[in-house]
Amino acid sequence: MSEKETCQKHGEVSVWLVCRHVGEGSADTIIFSENQDALCFECARNFKNLMEHDVVGMCEECLKDFTAKLMIDAKTFANLDARVKGLECLKGKREDTEESD
Fold this sequence. Notes:
46% of the residues lie in helices and 27% in strands. By secondary structure, it is an alpha/beta fold.
């Protein structure tokens, strides 16, 4: 998903498909994929059962902000590794977007 939308906080940005837990900021884990989506652990585990109402679009910059909060809250690398998976996918998409601009 590489669509751009307008975020009230960040302006025109790329939008990621995220589960409602990530979108609402209630997730305690995030698993990123190269397909520009991000799910909490529970939704990733039950991916095939997700319905349209279980996912939302989220501004990439807001997603980065939420990820940073999880990383800060983790306090140790061991906890961080359990809470954020596939972070390179978020970084990779950012680099791809900047190169194409």
